[in-house]
Amino acid sequence: MEAKAAQLRKLRPKGVVQLELGIGANNQMLKAPMMEMVSQFPYWFFITMNLAKEINILPTIRKRSLALKGDIARNLAQLKAASPNDDFAAKVSQTNTFNYENLVMQTQLNYSSYYSIYAQGGTAVKLTEEKPLPYDQQIKLFAQKVKEADHIVIGGASGLSAAGGGDFYYKDTPSFYKYFGKFAKKYGIKGDFAGMKYPWKTREEFWGYLATFLYTTQHAPVRQPYKDLKKIIGDKDYFFLTTNQDTQAIKEFPEDKVAEIQGDHRFFQYSQQCTDDVWDAVQPVEDMVKAMDDGTAIPTEMIPKCLHCGAEAFPWVRGYGNFLEGTRYHQEYAKISQYLEKNMNDGKILFIELGVGRMTPMFIQEPFWALTKNLPQAYDVMVNRDFQFLPQEIEDKGVAIKGDINQVLDDVLVELAK
Ligand SMILES: [Zn+2]
Questions:
Q1: Within this chain, do residues 173 and 237 fall inside the same structural domain, yes or no?
Q2: Is 82's pLDDT higher than 70?
Q3: Range of the structural domain that residue 71 is part of
Q4: 269: CA distance to ligand 1 center in Å?
Q5: Quick one: 385 and 278 in the same domain?
Q6: From ligand 1's centre to the CA of 310, what distance in Å?
């Protein structure tokens, strides 16, 4: 044992890939300790080859793991047949069930390698050298592609919700004062996210602020761009993928047509991820806001705590802490994966990317680019207030429109009505 431990310590800083083959989902003798090691060593990677029902990856290593579902012998044969320079994992996962999350993981790697380019407002992807079409022609093209499409996949990011008036996240806008006025006055907070990072003196005040934040988004009416999108889609077949956690998409579209891959303000999770539970936050938040009244703190006993370990609950959203990538998270990804698998080779598919910022190109923008490039009948419309990125590889299969999303969608509706 000692020698083994010393051997492991030597491996610790290096890149190690663990390959788990056919061990049962809940095996505690081998599988659990293997994953525990990957969890502790940041340069390790976990590959599991197993039947779909036996795939069970520790939430903490999701980003450093890969699941190859299905018959092991067949998957190994495919790996062997693949040429050495190909991306083996991509090859095998393509022949299996399509998995949108794999696309995200691939672009995540790109993002990490070129972080400074993205942080400066750029993209690592080579862009077209052609001049963009005049705005009017871009709108005509957008409308024409909608008319021609058999399937429409919308990717809604932060700029989409901001365009409709949800502009209180980053700045002290009038809408921020409207909803968070008492906190702005008392603590000098400027913008919603700033409040989430404020050094609150008590947990009661933190929860007072958090409850206000969640209440605001949970009860906000559906904003105009979402209504316009519904009209633009009309009776076409569609799917709505979103990184927005503000529940706007599920207020306008049925839940089975929406994938919320970055979480949702309607739910709580345990902050320590000690269980897979994700549960309703709407009622508790309403009770907190009522109990707070004109004050800025909630009663101590209302702070939701874990029955198992006593740690506080947390909104089920990425960005503030331990986002739980558990069952519900995988259900969200499964929705978009299944939709694409079913429809991506069935006629014309139109991707519409709306308001992707520079911090998160890996969830919507770059996967849409990759899909557009690889699917012969795909087209990509990108709308952004700040950026106009049309990759060279899809310069004949896409249009990048720089403009206010609200205005662009209005103009497309006018064009469609002609
Ligand atoms: Zn717990």
A1: no
A2: no
A3: 13-113
A4: 10
A5: no
A6: 6
